[in-house]
Structure formats: structure tokens, C-alpha cells
Write a structure and sequence with these properties.
By secondary structure, the chain is mainly β. The protein folds into two domains: 135 residues, Immunoglobulin-like, CATH 2.60.40; 89 residues, Sandwich (Immunoglobulin-like). It is 7% helix and 45% strand. A hairpin with an 8-residue loop joins β16 and β17.
């Protein structure tokens, strides 16, 4: 197997070429020096870090969160992304006190090694990716945040002006607001509020108060588990 040093020749931070993910550990001699040998071996391992690549940190409830990144090692002043090492993904939903393990995967064997995770988005949460280290590389981990907005399943019926839908998840008997604006560049005005039904269903009667087009949406306030959320925008028009 090539040494870390030989693989890193010519590697720059921009190219992030692959390092080998593992190397054989030297067997320490038995006797009183065993503990010091183990400590020396741990100190000789190269520093590593988690580097997150660009991904969407704001998601709709139930949609996939796709977390991408790299395990990066620094060897004698040069940096490279590590091939085929195992990483674990955990999540802590806001308002809870524990981390839950979600998935385990390996970084790819490509010239630009990276890890990819795909999980559903249940609520605002912290995510943590951890690399446990090996004989040549130090362990590392890093956290990131993904915020989640509710879904409204909104519809506006022609003719009747009934604007209705259902908020998910778990939004029964809670406050929902109707917002309006008079032009495409105008600010939004809150014009009405109501409470949802047993299953989060909501309904408003809307119309066009002045000639021309009017824009409508509904919204819910922020909470521990969800950011302030907005429905799709609908329009009515008086000619």
C-alpha cells in the first residue's frame, strides 16, 4: 500500500485528491513500554476534519435532506480528502435531549472522495457526522443544522373563493393566519386568523377588494420544531 506521504505529493487543498483510508498498525513490543508506545502511536496519527459540501439547509416537512461532505486529512502541511473510510450520521431534533444514530456509509473511492446521506426531514434538527479514526488518522466530527417548514396542501377554488387545505404535521386546533398583498412588489398584510380543525384542516373565504389582482397565502408561527411557514401563493383578479 502506498504511504500517505507518497499519495499526497502534488495534492492541493483545491484538488482534494484521495488518501488511503487505512494502514497497518505497528505491533508494540510487550512489557512496561506498552502504554507509552500506544500513546506515541495515537499522537503520530494525522489530523482530520469534516468538510461539508453545499446542500440545502432548509427543507419542507417529510422531504429528503441530502447531506454531503468529505473527511479531510492534513499531512505535513498538505490537505487531501480520504477515500473509503466509514462515517456515521446522527440527528438531534430541536426540543429533544438525545442524539439518534441514523445511517453509516463510506467515503467514495473516486478522485474526489466524499460521503452522501439522504434522510427524511421530520423537524428542525442538528446533524452530526463522525469519522472514528484509524491507525493513521485521528477521529473527528462536525455538526450542521437543517431547518424545516410545515406543509399546507393549499387550494383556491375558482368561483367560490374558498382558500383551504391541511397543515402537517400535527397542527390541530392551532392558530393560522391569512396574508394578503395588493401588488407583486408590495409587502404582506395579515388580514385574518383562525384555528385549524381536528386534523389541521383550515379554510378562509377570499375575494378581490379592488380592481386588478390580489395575492394570498396562509402562514403559521415559528415553534421549537418548525420555522415560520408559508403556503404557496395564490391570486384572485377583479376585472
Amino acid at each position: 500500500m502506498k504511504s500517505l506521504r507518497s499519495v499526497l505529493v502534488g495534492v492541493t487543498a483545491a484538488s482534494l485528491l484521495g488518501l488511503p483510508g487505512a494502514a497497518a498498525a505497528a505491533t508494540p513490543s510487550p512489557g512496561p513500554s506498552l502504554a507509552s508506545a500506544a500513546s506515541s502511536a495515537a499522537l503520530s496519527r494525522y489530523d482530520t476534519s469534516i468538510r461539508y459540501l453545499s446542500f440545502d439547509h432548509s427543507r419542507a416537512y417529510g422531504s429528503p435532506t441530502k447531506i454531503r461532505g468529505q473527511v479531510v486529512a492534513t499531512v505535513r502541511g498538505q490537505r487531501g480528502a480520504v477515500r473509503h473510510v466509514r462515517v456515521k450520521l446522527s440527528r438531534r431534533v430541536f426540543g429533544t435531549g438525545h442524539w439518534k444514530h441514523l445511517k453509516t456509509t463510506y467515503t467514495s473511492r473516486t478522485d474526489r472522495p466524499r460521503f452522501r446521506f439522504r434522510v427524511k426531514s421530520p423537524a428542525n434538527a442538528r446533524y452530526r457526522v463522525v469519522f472514528g479514526g484509524n491507525a493513521k488518522l485521528q477521529p473527528t466530527g462536525k455538526r450542521t443544522t437543517v431547518v424545516v417548514h410545515r406543509k399546507f396542501n393549499a387550494r383556491l377554488e375558482d368561483g367560490t373563493g374558498r382558500f383551504h387545505g391541511r397543515v402537517v404535521p400535527n397542527y390541530a386546533h392551532r392558530r393560522i393566519f391569512l396574508d394578503r398583498r395588493e401588488c407583486a412588489s408590495c409587502g404582506w398584510d395579515r388580514v385574518r386568523s383562525a384555528r385549524t380543525g381536528d386534523r389541521g384542516r383550515w379554510s378562509f373565504k377570499v375575494g378581490t377588494p379592488t380592481p386588478g389582482k390580489t395575492w394570498w397565502r396562509v402562514s403559521t408561527p415559528a415553534s421549537t420544531k418548525f420555522v415560520r411557514s408559508y403556503s404557496s401563493v395564490f391570486t384572485t383578479e377583479l376585472r
